[in-house]
Amino acid sequence: MRALAMSAVAEALRGSRIVALGAGGVIGGRVVEALAGELGVETVAVVRTLSKAARAARFPIRIVSGDVRDAGILDRAISEGDIVVDLTYPAEGNRAERVRAAREMADSIAAAVRRRRARRLVHLSTISVYGPVRALTLDESAPRRPGADPYGAGKQAGERELLRLAREDGLPAVILQPTVVYGPFAGWTVGPLRQLREGIVVLPARGQGICNAVYLDDVIQAIFRAAVAEAVEGEAFLISGEQPPTWLDFYGAYERMLGVSSLLAMDTASVRAQLNAQAKSARPFRRLIHRLRSDGDLRQTILALPALAQAYALARALLPRARWERAKDRWMKRGGAAPSAPGRPLRLPRPIQLELMASPARVSIEKARRRLGFEPAYDLDQGMRATREWAAWAGLIPE
Amino acid sequence: MRALAMSAVAEALRGSRIVALGAGGVIGGRVVEALAGELGVETVAVVRTLSKAARAARFPIRIVSGDVRDAGILDRAISEGDIVVDLTYPAEGNRAERVRAAREMADSIAAAVRRRRARRLVHLSTISVYGPVRALTLDESAPRRPGADPYGAGKQAGERELLRLAREDGLPAVILQPTVVYGPFAGWTVGPLRQLREGIVVLPARGQGICNAVYLDDVIQAIFRAAVAEAVEGEAFLISGEQPPTWLDFYGAYERMLGVSSLLAMDTASVRAQLNAQAKSARPFRRLIHRLRSDGDLRQTILALPALAQAYALARALLPRARWERAKDRWMKRGGAAPSAPGRPLRLPRPIQLELMASPARVSIEKARRRLGFEPAYDLDQGMRATREWAAWAGLIPE
Amino acid sequence: MTVDSIQIGVVGCGAVTARYHLPALRRVAGARVAALADPALERARILAAQFGVPRAVADFQEMLDGVDAVVLALPHHLHATIGIAALRAGKHVLMEKPLANTVADCDALIAAARENGRVLAVAQVRRYLPAVRAVRDWLSAGLLGDIAAFEVEEGGVYRWPAASDFFFRRETAGGGVFMDTGAHVLDMLRCWLGDLTLVEYADDAAGGVEADGEMRVRSLCGAEGTIRLSRLRDLRNRCVLRGSRATLDVEPLNHRATLTPSRSKTGLAGTVEGAMDSAPDWVTLFEEQAENWLKAIRRQPAEIAAAEEARETIRLIEEAYARRRTVAGVWERPLIGAGA
Amino acid sequence: MTVDSIQIGVVGCGAVTARYHLPALRRVAGARVAALADPALERARILAAQFGVPRAVADFQEMLDGVDAVVLALPHHLHATIGIAALRAGKHVLMEKPLANTVADCDALIAAARENGRVLAVAQVRRYLPAVRAVRDWLSAGLLGDIAAFEVEEGGVYRWPAASDFFFRRETAGGGVFMDTGAHVLDMLRCWLGDLTLVEYADDAAGGVEADGEMRVRSLCGAEGTIRLSRLRDLRNRCVLRGSRATLDVEPLNHRATLTPSRSKTGLAGTVEGAMDSAPDWVTLFEEQAENWLKAIRRQPAEIAAAEEARETIRLIEEAYARRRTVAGVWERPLIGAGA
């Protein structure tokens, strides 16, 4: 297939109305902006709660609020011939709860797509459905093993349900699996900037793990291509940038934006040891809390005391005087915020992130290239330049 | 004996030098001022530490600092023919420690009096040596039963030792037993004013117990009379005001000075019940502290946490959220001071004070009248007027 | 002399009614909430049960007979019609801000209040913030000297639990963050600096309501200032007033202020005296507002935001929208031709 | 370029040396404490061991050879003789306050410093308090307008662990609470308001040293103020400066200040920016003092209390003592004739 220019993709999109489910999120917000703004496509935004609609409300489009598991909501939003872009996912709950919710959401959306005779369903999944990858290359043929990660598991349940319905019932669903999405409002931008500002960020694999980063707008491009591409129903596509950087390069870009020196690249075993030590040092305190929780008598003791007096008295009774005075000073200085250890705190990756950051796998976007005509427009430099501009506006980096 | 006018007492005092032991205290300060100021008598001030000498240092007198158990100190202060006024007492320690210290002090002072051939030793004891009194009248013939009170027990040990030495060795000692001394700098003035300002003061016996109050200057008068009276060696004298008021009258005078309404007169049984309840509610917390103190593991747990974080975390973990928020607000409002229950706190008498305040006993000053020519110059009104003037100067009451 | 209790009806049972008006009115002496009205009758019924209000109705007209005064907490576009109806029925009105979406509607409301001799107050509740009052005091005492410039910013990801979608439609809300937060901020600035005139205005509305924007205004005394508001990014919620003698950096929502004399390196950083809580107790502020409204109804001296003042704020916002320069988000790079 | 370390001797091993001078000097770069001197040699030896000082001697003359500069923390009456001896021996001096007990002694010290070309600084350590610096800044920035009046009070039961009794004798201490605390407070006021002249003075000294007193002074600009000091009663440790524009109530020892504009009901109550600890860290202040002294020795720009300034404070105290009105304590009622 010859790759369509984006102008041609836009032209094709203008033939339908687009319904964005989950329009209050990072990707949804950008989808709506691009459609209702630049591309001039009729758009309906479906948000979970109205509080999330500020960005979509900049445009004179229909906004519907409610849960996508409610058929009535979807019926109000979707009409015949529409293209549905599904950006929803269950954000809360444990693994089992999310898996169930994701399946229910998928079923509800699939049913609405069929009932309202929508033309296509583009569903946003994630690279996390593959779980930890040890191989040097990852493509869509790899097994899905999201493991214990509730996010990946939920997403996998949703995508699997839709792929099954595509296969069995001819649901016109296309699945996109973006990698590490960064850019305006994105978690992989806001999170690292905050971590690097507040503490020392520890990277495993000496920072040499592969970061399959993709700039937000390239994901949007892929969504629009998937919305109009021919003969891609029932297919899944990994969506990533080209020439993935290392995690050290990726975080390094943020470090430079902030003008700080906050990265600490370690070997993976040492990071694991740190994680274990952290868990251990938290343990006795958790045990104390547990003891106090389970010992009703002791607990009543504490609760019977006027409000915070117990904490105060406890600290005063147990801390050596000098330490108490210092602690008090620090407490007051912070206006009551929880005091932390001196020095900048270490920000260790969570275990699930550690796998991701230690992985040597490069994601192949060959399939998306071939079948969708996808071609990333942003390399890391370009993406980070755009990201820096947004971050300055958002007050996340010094101006 | 015909009572001497104070001018004649002063005249008699001018025949000797006066050494005030414990000149840094409330009575000692006034003794020195009256001697070195108004009466123009040569005075030596002995203070425990120099920090206490500010008041005596207003006069060009000798100031000696040190412990009266140190013979060298006393030898530097006392010369032949001196009158020694002993205002010292052991202010710290438990009952046994104070009894031992009081005896050592008495022995050291008695030895110095004999060694330096001082003319007289006037020793300040207290009404507390009699312990709780249930009779309607108290005079010097009553048994000394100070009971568990460490202060009274210490004072009793000192006075007993000196009386023994007077009887057995001809020590020229006279004992004065003042009652509830109030006035400038006095504990029975500073304490009640503070309590009434900060909380609700609870009086037992519906406030109708007898307060054998004596204005400070009347005690000074008695000291000077005892210093020069004839044939009173080996005798003890109760020193009190005339027409003792009730405790309600006594505290009421302070209440009026402050312009507050802070007194709560209750029957004694109810006060006891309150004291018990207070002890009970404090108990589980003390138990918790005890457990944490004795449980090294648990204690390490707490101490290992950064400074105050434990207190904060503990409170946050255990308090219901709304209560936590309120507690935090209150905490911050007070700038970190220990928060207390809402409303003005109750100030209950300590058990030893409860006995004193519930007692119906009027102190007889007949013996001091007869043998010392003592006549109180201040009734409650006059004493409280003078006290009010001082309290305003000291910033203890609104001006 | 005892004062008869004023019977109050509350129209509109959204979040502001449930969280603030009803808890506050319950505390006010000499007033009693007699009825609630909301087309979503179920909401009205629930709140009536929660706050012990005897009547709940769907149509506000039904409640008018039994009340002396009404609190109107409605979608903005309904302010004028329902407000005018209430005033014509002889009811005093406390109108949630903004007074109305247009100056024309404001004028109609003001005329209705005059013609019927009723109090029309606007719920500019921030006026009761200790810092807002203190700064007004300080400015009139000349603490800062002549004000040369000022900057206000307030922003955060939008989180108000909006119960209806009027809020995000231009026809119903009248505007975005400037009609909402801006009505507060501009009223506060008017309290401090008097009438403001527009210099320029830009926002990101592309046919809908703005989520982020910046207004430049000039005060009577010639000081120019910027007001930057956002629903998309966290801004420091503060006002900086730059005077000839000193600069005051005030955070009205948490009572903090730092004063730095013009030629000094060191500031005095503290809180407004008498306001030591870390966050304002909004129910208490609404209570003060209600008390002052009731005083005004009883023709006693009262501190209320008069409709005429609120109209000036709406005039400014209306002019700003009319002269709007639209600015896309810095992140809105074209997809077509991207990377080329 | 490296700077040679300045060798310092400390004369007098009392509480201020042990608590502040030695801990502070240990932190200062480019200086080294080479010797301690105290007639109570044992005290000197203990401190030398504690602070790693190589020499401890009884007679300060013995140490002079090995040092470039001396800190003198001595009984007040020895300041002049020992100070002059050290200056004549070519040593720079940091003198504990008060500079000396009399103006004549101050002048002799100043002359000795001039003749020998040495730095004679006075340990007016409160100058380094953040609030003292900030208030100076604010005043010169005109924050308060013209100062019309001021009140200072500081008092509490005396608790300093005096190791020798020089402190409570007029011959040795030179005076009481005004020579001690007063030397600090008057220096602070001079920093803020310039030279002060005496209006009147009263204290309670009856042949000894005063424990409580009150001084009235006039500043160059004509403002009159009261300084009330006590060792017998708790006073609020604060200074109130009443200006034409605003009143500042400052507590320099805990960095707090409340500013109330003249026509305002509400004040701004807070702390001096950058000084958020609840109590000042005195060792750090002594460290700053030592650093500035060393800078002055190296002829670099430095903030020190010059002897000439300290002399003015002593002049004021000397004059006050000369014009003293003696007032007995309000509680000193006559015993003779009492109750009659």
Describe this structure in words.
The complex is a heterotetramer, with 2 copies of chain A (399 residues) and 2 copies of chain C (340 residues). Chain A is an alpha/beta fold and 399 residues long. Chain A is built from 15 helices and 14 strands. In chain A, the strands form 4 sheets. In chain A, strands 3-2-1-4-5-7-11 form a 7-stranded parallel sheet, with helices on both faces. In chain A, helix 1 packs across helix 7, helix 6 crosses helix 8 (247-258) and helix 8 packs parallel to helix 15 (380-393). The longest helix of chain A is centred in the last third of the chain and has 27 residues, at 268-294. By secondary structure, chain C is of the alpha/beta class. Chain C has 2 domains: 6-125 and 289-310, 3-Layer(aba) Sandwich (Rossmann fold); 127-278 and 321-326, 2-Layer Sandwich (Dihydrodipicolinate Reductase, domain 2). Chain C is 34% helix and 27% strand. Chains A and B meet through helix 9, helix 10, helix 11 and helix 12 of A and helix 9, helix 10, helix 11 and helix 12 of B.
Q: What's this, in brief?
A:
The complex is a heterotetramer, with two copies of chain A (399 residues) and two copies of chain C (340 residues). Chain A has helices at residues 6-13, 26-39, 71-77, 95-115, 150-169, 187-198, 216-228, 247-258, 268-294, 296-304, 309-318, 321-333, 351-358, 366-372, 380-393; strands at residues 18-21, 43-47, 62-65, 83-86, 120-124, 137-138, 173-178, 180-182, 200-203, 213-215, 236-239, 263-265, 346-347, 362-363.
